[in-house]
Every structure is written in structure tokens, then in C-alpha cells.
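README, section 4: Worked example with a bound small molecule

Sections 1 through 3 covered apo chains. Here we extend the same pipeline to holo records, where the ligand is supplied as SMILES alongside the sequence. The molecule in this example is NAP. Nothing else about the input changes; the structure line simply encodes the ligand pose together with the chain.
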Amino acid sequence: MGSFDMTGRHVAITGASSGFGHHFAGLLASKGAKVSLGARRVDKLETRVAEIHAAGGEAAAIPLDVRQRASVTAFMDQAEATFGGIDVLINNAGVEAGAKTYMMIDEADWDFVIETNLKGAWLTSKAYTERVVAGKRPGGNIIMISSITDSRTIKGQFPYAVSKGGLTRMTEVMALEAARYNIRVNALAPGYVLTDVSRVLLESERSAEFVKGIPMRRYGEFEDLDGPLLLLASDASSYMTGSVVVVDGGHICASL
Ligand SMILES: NC(=O)c1ccc[n+]([C@@H]2O[C@H](COP(=O)([O-])OP(=O)(O)OC[C@H]3O[C@@H](n4cnc5c(N)ncnc54)[C@H](OP(=O)(O)O)[C@@H]3O)[C@@H](O)[C@H]2O)c1
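The generated complex, written as C-alpha cells:
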């Protein structure tokens, strides 16, 4: 069995200033990884890095806007200068456009969500792959943070759900194309966990009814993702690529 050990591994996380990315940074650092945290709100990254340092971990706060290629390049340059080549890239940065249907969004909503959730993941993955190849590194590991909206439909999460459907397909196509570089590409598809992205739905009056559609009758907690994330980030998943790991309390199996 491959090891779950993360000691000395360099993990770069996009969108680490809040929510899942913020949580994953602490988790991975506590398991011995060196963590590069990227996002636009650098003050929040710095606070998180200070917490990780205080707990004895290694981490760096680096400005990042995943929609801008120059920013992605600068992020990776700084991450590599600090901790060396990146072993694992976690494409976690994501936004939504509010509780809107396709008739309610405008072009700005579409561009904002698609550019962050899809273009951003492609830009970072491409830059990462170029570095693995140019550095003649033996391989790499990319994890996409998708969502169960990639496979089940819901009203009023357009274009978020469209972007996540695309992200899962990106995972599969990239896995196929990146295998020649020995880069694995997998996705984690969480169900609903209370964060700034999901607040609009989970704190709405629909919430009580919505949660009844989850077989386990509760929303997820950050810690529910720890095991699956460590599986994908470590050698324990060394023969996994192109997989989508669903962590949702059975939500996508809900009764019709
Ligand atoms: N919460 C859920 O129920 C749920 C379920 C399934 C999947 N997800 C996915 O989980 C991921 C994390 O979301 P979350 O729920 O943890 O929400 P969150 O707390 O709002 O986190 C989103 C993160 O993305 C970053 N971000 C946004 N735009 C960015 C950009 N252009 N460049 C770099 N970073 C950017 C934000 O940082 P800055 O604003 O500082 O840039 C923030 O750190 C998303 O991909 C989301 O779709 C969430």
C-alpha cells in the first residue's frame, strides 16, 4: 500500500484564504507538508501562515489571482523559490454568482465564475505541468476541488454548476493527457459545507427542506474531507488518475 505520509512534500493551494483551502493548508502542514497558500486576500493568508508557524508547520503566503497568467507565474516562482518544486497542486479557488438562474445572470457573472473556476484551474495546471517537464521532475499530482453540482442538477446555481461540470471533465481529459508526464489528476467533489460559497443556499429558508435530501441528514464539516484529501494528495492514491471522489453524505444518491 502507498503511504499517506506528507512529510517534506510541497503542496500549493489556490484559494487558501478561507473555507476549504484555509482548512486544507492547516491539515497538510500538520501532516508535515510545506504549504504555499495563494489567494487575493493576502492579509488572510498571512494570518493563516502565522497560525501554521505557531503550530510548528511550514507555510508561505503568496498573492494569487488565478484568472491572470502573470499572477500564476509569479505565484509559482515564489512558491518554488521558498520550498522548491511543487509536489501537489490543489486547484481549490472558486466563486459563485449568487442564487441565480441562467436567465438572471449577466455577462459579468458568467465571466467571473467561468474565468475563476475553469480558466483559473487550466492556467495553474498548465503552468505547473510546464515546470514539472522543464525541471525534469519525475512526476506530479493535481487535485481539482469540484462539487456534486458537476453531476446532479440544481436550480439557481448557474453558472457555478456549469463550471463544476467542466472542471470534472477537465480532470478526466487532463488525466489522460498528463499521464505521459507521470502527473496524476483527480478531483474531490464535496457535497454542501457551510462556507462563503455555499452560505447563500445553506442559510436560506430552503435549507431545512434541502438538508432532508441528504441521506445522512446533515451538511458536511471540513473534517469530513480530511481523509479523502490526504488520499489524493499522497502516494496512497498512486494508481488513481482521472477519478472523482465524492464526499457528500450520499447526497447524489438521494431518492428521486
Ligand atoms: N462550500 C461548499 O459547500 C462547496 C461544495 C463543493 C465544492 N466547493 C468548492 O470548494 C472550493 C472552495 O470554496 P469554499 O467553499 O471554501 O469557499 P470560500 O471560503 O469562499 O473560498 C474560496 C476561495 O477561493 C479564493 N479565490 C476566489 N477567487 C480567486 C481568484 N481569482 N484567485 C485566487 N483565489 C481566488 C478565495 O480567496 P480570495 O477571495 O482571497 O481570492 C477563497 O480563498 C471552491 O472551488 C468551491 O466551488 C465548495
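What to look for in the output: The mean pLDDT is 97. Helices lie at 19-30, 42-54, 69-83, 107-134, 160-178, 199-202, 207-211, 226-233.

Section 5 describes how to batch many such records.
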